[in-house]
Backbone:
C-alpha cells in the first residue's frame, strides 16, 4: 500500500514555513474550476463577506509567514485586505462554507466566532469539517457545534497554531444527553486510538480512504 495522503491531488503542497500546507500553484486553476463547477451544480450563491475579516486572523498563510491566530499585517480591520489584488494563492483559494452558501445566514463567522471549511483531506476521510476559532471562544464554539445538524459526521476544531490545539467532535464519540456530537481533546483522542478504536469506525475509515484515494492503493 502506498501513501494515501496525496497532497497534490488535494490541491496542496508543503511550504517552507513551518512545514504548513499551502495551495499548490500547479493545480490552483484546476481546483478553482472544480469548486466553481460544484457551486454551480449545487445552485449555491456566494455571499459577500461584508464586515467579516476572521479569515485574516485565524488560518496560517505560509507565503506571508503568518502564523495561525494572529492578524495579517496586510489587514486593516476597518477596510479589509490592503493587498487584495496581489494576495497569495492561499488567500485566493480560500472560501469558508458560509461564504459559498453552505451554512445558514446566522452562522456568519464574525457573528459566531468561528468558520467552517473543507480544507483538510485528512479530516474529510472521517467525514469531518475543519473549524477555525480562537482559544477563548472554544467553549462557545463547541456548544454551538454540538447542536449543529449536518450531513457530516463531525468537526475538527483548531483553536491555535499548535497541532495539540485541536478539539474533535464526532458522532462516534460519547455524547451527553441532548447533544448531537460527542467530543474529545487531542490527548483524549490519542488515548482512545491507542486503546483500540471501534471496529466499525476503523472499517469506515479504510473504506472512505480507499474510495477517495483509490489510485494510490
Residues:
Amino acid at each position: 500500500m502506498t501513501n494515501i495522503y496525496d497532497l497534490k491531488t488535494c490541491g496542496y503542497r508543503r511550504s517552507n514555513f513551518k512545514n504548513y500546507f499551502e495551495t499548490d500553484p500547479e493545480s490552483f486553476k484546476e481546483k478553482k474550476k472544480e469548486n466553481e463547477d460544484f457551486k454551480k451544480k449545487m445552485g449555491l450563491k456566494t455571499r459577500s463577506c461584508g464586515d467579516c475579516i476572521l479569515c485574516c486572523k485565524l488560518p496560517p498563510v505560509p507565503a506571508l509567514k503568518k502564523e495561525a491566530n494572529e492578524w495579517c499585517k496586510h489587514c486593516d480591520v476597518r477596510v479589509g485586505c490592503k493587498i487584495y489584488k496581489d494576495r497569495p494563492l492561499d488567500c485566493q483559494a480560500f472560501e469558508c462554507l458560509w461564504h459559498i452558501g453552505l451554512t445558514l445566514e446566522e452562522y456568519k463567522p464574525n457573528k459566531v466566532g468561528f468558520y467552517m471549511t473543507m480544507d483538510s483531506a485528512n479530516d474529510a476521510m472521517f467525514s469531518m469539517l475543519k473549524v477555525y476559532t480562537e482559544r477563548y471562544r472554544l467553549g462557545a464554539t463547541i456548544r454551538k457545534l454540538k447542536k449543529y445538524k449536518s450531513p457530516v459526521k463531525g468537526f475538527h476544531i483548531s483553536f491555535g497554531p499548535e497541532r495539540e490545539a485541536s478539539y474533535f467532535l464526532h458522532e462516534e464519540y460519547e455524547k451527553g444527553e441532548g447533544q448531537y456530537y460527542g467530543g474529545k481533546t487531542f490527548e483524549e483522542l490519542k488515548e482512545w486510538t491507542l486503546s483500540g478504536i471501534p471496529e466499525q469506525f476503523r472499517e469506515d475509515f479504510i473504506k472512505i480512504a480507499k474510495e477517495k484515494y483509490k489510485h494510490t492503493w
User: Anything to note?
Assistant: The beta strands are 12-14, 21-23, 75-76, 80-81, 114-117, 128-133, 154-158, 166-170, 182-185. The CA atoms of residues 188 and 194 lie 10 Å apart.
